[in-house]
Amino acid sequence: MNFTAEQIAGILDGEVVGDSTIEVSNLSKIEEGKEGELTFLSNPKYTPYIYTTKASITIVNKSFKPEKQIHTTLIKVDDAYKAFSKLLEYYNQVKMNKSGIEQPAHISESAKLGENIYIGAFSYIGNNVQIGDNVKIYPNSYIGDNVVIQDNTVIFAGVKIYSDCIVGSYCVLNSGVIIGADGFGFVPNEEGEYTKVPQIGNVILEDYVDIGAATTIDRATLGSTIIRRGVKLDNQIQIAHNVEIGRNTVIAAQTGVAGSTKIGKNCIIGGQVGIAGHLIIGDNVKIQAQSGIGKNIKDNEVLQGSPSFNYSDWNKSYIHFKNLPKIVKNIIELEKKVDGNN
């Protein structure tokens, strides 16, 4: 889809300097810009590229004044970075503006479908499913019986949502996400063999939850696994049964949270963090990458290490960790001197 400089300026409330009829059909970084592409300049260190870029249109701050000849049409705005972000969002909405029901798709007669929805080919919509307005379900997705998906949520290709789970409004579930698989519940019998404990709860995602590709969230044994409003989960994260994650907490890739742990609001958790089960993690906690959490954490703590401890203490200790061979050598030499003097 092509847009002229004049149309883009209208979307961004900007001013065109140059050819207002020039068209673009793609976006690019300023240093890689080509004819027919749009880019932006906000970071001063990239200023030299505006004189060499081949991008047809460049968004700049109103304060920008070229010091030599440029070959790109400018769109001047109050804040180039925010304007480009707005344009990305607009471009994404246009690109994803699909509607209707593709065939083949299985939709149960008892399912209730909202207005202006999209259901991609080879999707399965089970019994008594409720789908809100403006929901998009991309191909090869599975929506189990009694699932509720509220307005304006996007389910990308290959997502699996098991029965009885609830997905709020304005959520995004990326490809390969699995919501509501059985929790890891087994008990040993007298022969030492493991017997499965039925997992009869569900998963609840509140509004504005984003979940990265191939992340799994297990259903509760009883009750619900709950992901609160505004939570952002990266790719390849494991959330176990009966976990609760507080509002606006963000978790990076390859983190695992064991069963029944409660994580507070506004937490920031790095990649490859391991959190044991039945813990309480307070609000505003920050956990550095590859940390291991095996005990309750109070509000506002910053942690690192495995097992983790206070971030400042960890940094001080790290100085000694990396010098351990030298420290050991010095101790051995001191012991020899002491023995020699006796």
Automatic annotation (TrEMBL):
What GO terms describe the biological role, i.e. biological process, of this protein? lipid A biosynthetic process
Give the UniProt family note: Belongs to the transferase hexapeptide repeat family. LpxD subfamily.
EC class name: transferase
- Which reactions fall under this protein's catalytic activity? a UDP-3-O-[(3R)-3-hydroxyacyl]-alpha-D-glucosamine + a (3R)-hydroxyacyl-[ACP] = a UDP-2-N,3-O-bis[(3R)-3-hydroxyacyl]-alpha-D-glucosamine + holo-[ACP] + H(+)
Record pathway: Bacterial outer membrane biogenesis; LPS lipid A biosynthesis
Name the UniProt record assigns to this protein: UDP-3-O-acylglucosamine N-acyltransferase
Q: How does it assemble?
A: Homotrimer.
Q: In the Enzyme Commission scheme, what number(s) does this protein have?
A: 2.3.1.191
- One Gene Ontology cellular component: membrane
**Stretches assigned to the UDP-3-O-[3-hydroxymyristoyl] glucosamine N-acyltransferase non-repeat region domain:** 22-89
> By its UniProt entry, which InterPro entries does this protein fall under?
Hexapep, LpxD, Trimer_LpxA-like_sf, UDP_GlcNAc_AcTrfase_non-rep
The organism encoding this protein is Bizionia myxarmorum
Q: What does this protein do?
A: Catalyzes the N-acylation of UDP-3-O-acylglucosamine using 3-hydroxyacyl-ACP as the acyl donor. Is involved in the biosynthesis of lipid A, a phosphorylated glycolipid that anchors the lipopolysaccharide to the outer membrane of the cell.
Q: Which GO terms describe its molecular function?
A: N-acyltransferase activity; UDP-3-O-[(3R)-3-hydroxyacyl]-glucosamine N-acyltransferase activity
Q: Which of UniProt's keywords are assigned here?
A: Acyltransferase, Lipid A biosynthesis, Lipid biosynthesis, Lipid metabolism, Repeat, Transferase
Task: State which gene encodes it.
Answer: lpxD
Which top-rank group of organisms is this from?
Bacteria
* Positions of the catalytic residues: H241
Question: Pfam families given for it?
Answer: Hexapep, LpxD
Q: Which HAMAP family match?
A: LpxD
